[in-house]
Design goal:
about 180 residues; five-stranded parallel β-sheet; 5 strands; globular; binds adenosine monophosphate
Length: about 180
């Protein structure tokens, strides 16, 4: 099964992605991690990625799409995958050539997301960058929900609960 997991920064999507993949015996691919790794390259592309990420902006849509497709063609993803952080724009959703069977949306409020992120206390989690990332999420990523809803594969999950409760709900709904 090919799954995408969506939700704002702080929604707990990466945690759930790992847990779902373990339960189903499939792989995960985390877009933010992949881009972070790539941003460390000493090249123009590395710098481009790094400055977008630091600003809480979306990294070049096409560059990210190419990177994701290249990785998804690797052997470890052929049994199925949980794709975390992709797509983030309508354009990416429309242009991803690999078929998606389920799109999980973790619904959480901005107030909860901000609180969770500030509690993590990482240096990249300043209030300004968090607010920026949430704004970009609402503007660019939220519209993808109706794209998957129209395809009949959207699963909406209340993300403001315990990790285990959320996981049980997801596993029940993707059956
Ligand atoms: P995340 O770990 O999913 O919160 O992503 C961290 C950062 O990576 C985001 O704030 C963006 O700058 C970048 N990013 C992640 N996914 C994508 C994507 N699908 N397209 C473009 N940029 C992305």
């Amino acid at each position: 099964m090919n799954i995408v997991i969506m939700g704002p920064v702080g929604s707990g999507k990466s945690t759930q992605a790992q847990l779902i993949a373990r339960e189903l015996g499939i792989s995960t691919l985390n877009t933010g991690d992949l881009l972070y790794f790539k941003s460390k390259e000493d090249s123009d592309i590395g710098q481009l990625i790094s400055s977008a990420m630091r600003a809480g902006e979306i990294v070049d849509e096409g560059l990210t799409l190419d990177l994701i497709e290249k990785h998804l063609r690797e052997k470890e993803h052929q049994k199925g995958f949980v794709l975390d952080g992709f797509p983030r724009t309508i354009w990416q959703a429309e242009n991803l050539k690999i078929p998606i069977n389920k799109a999980i949306y973790l619904a959480t409020s901005d107030a909860v997301n901000t609180k969770r992120l500030l509690n993590r206390g990482r240096s990249d989690a300043t209030l300004m960058v968090i607010e920026k990332r949430l704004k970009v999420y609402h503007r660019e990523t939220q519209p993808i929900l109706s794209f998957y809803r129209k395809k009949g594969i959207l699963i909406e999950i209340n993300g403001e609960r315990d990790v285990d409760e959320i996981l049980d709900d997801i596993l029940e709904k993707i059956k």
